[in-house]
Amino acid sequence: MDNIRIIEIKESVFANNDAEADRIRQELKEDKTFLLNLMSSPGSGKTTTLVKTVNNLKDKLKIGIMEADIDSDVDARTMANTGVEAIQLHTGGMCHLDAGMTEQGLKALNAQSFDLAILENVGNLVCPAEFDTGASKNVMILSVPEGHDKPLKYPLIFTVCDALIINKIDVLPYFDFDMDKVIEYAHQRNPKLKIFPISAKTGEGIDDWCNWLLENVNEWNK
Amino acid sequence: MHEIGVLEEAVKTVERIAKENQVDKIRFITLEIGELTGYMPVFFEKYFPIVVEKRPVLKDAELRMKIVKGQAICEECQSLYNVMKNEGCCPNCKSRSKKILGGQEFLIKDIGY
After folding, report:
1. CATH number, domain with residue A36
2. Under CATH, which architecture does the B3-69+102-112 domain have?
3. pLDDT tens digits for A153-203?
4. Which residues of chain A lie closer than 8 angstroms to B17, CB-CB?
5. Which residue from A minimizes the CA distance to B107?
6. Is residue A43 in a domain?
7. Is the ipTM of this complex over 0.85?
8. B25 touches chain A (CB under 8 A)
9. At what angle do helices A15-31 and B3-20 cross, to 10 degrees?
10. Whole-prediction pTM value?
11. Which chain B residues are within 8 Å of A68, Cβ to Cβ?
12. Cβ within 8 Å of residue B95, ≥6 positions away
């Protein structure tokens, strides 16, 4: 049997995806389009939060939405009711979007015509955190019923996000959710993380979150 | 189950490297997997044949894995400890403040052909 030759590589598994994501980010910057990658567990209120966000910002920004799900188009139809452009991406069973799939979505949406493109990633706290989509900013939603211990259990997503929305604060009295603890744990993972406690249902806290987003979009697109 | 997604990513990178080096048949790939990534090696083993079956360069390749221990140094008392065994807490002073020294890597270490 002939000899086996070995190539030493020592390259991150995500090197390809990271390079693609950097290229997408560069193109978005040139097109003056801000891409927000929104991540969370299923049922945390991503779509409801987005509806409130879009209604708050649609007079100030031209917004386009990409809804990523394993199947169905219920989210895209909900978003389309707000009057902004919304498309549905199907991941074909995959539990996250990578840079390549995001780029296809941006093309389908014709994202360069928007100030703000929002990617609602697949509901999952693990895989989406591993794949850079090329977004300008990453934001996650954690909802009160999920518990304040999530930064300990899913550290990576808290590390890669720029902002954390804590949703469903209207139900705080009914859960053993410790707001001080979640902030402490989240900042242990990522001291720079901006935190916005909100209730997408009542509208509490939405203004602060939307102001932060608007500032970041304007900064990116100037 | 998220092992399958990252494994797809690893395999795509290996295909690119094989092409760059004009390798048409890979015999093995070695992944270096840090304990703190949360990946379960058993699932990599399980999914590997499925992920490579339609990729001619890798179809008959063997998957090798090198596990890297999750080591940290305590920022309070400077003790060196294993993060997994001690559940993220310094066994000496119980502090959670630490600098991770290893165990977060997820690399393609090498390929054999």
Report:
1. 3.40.50.300
2. 2-Layer Sandwich (3.30)
3. 888 899 999 999 999 999 999 999 999 999 999 998 888 999 999 999 999
4. 7, 9, 11
5. A12
6. yes
7. no
8. no
9. 90
10. 0.85
11. none
12. B74, B75, B76, B77, B89
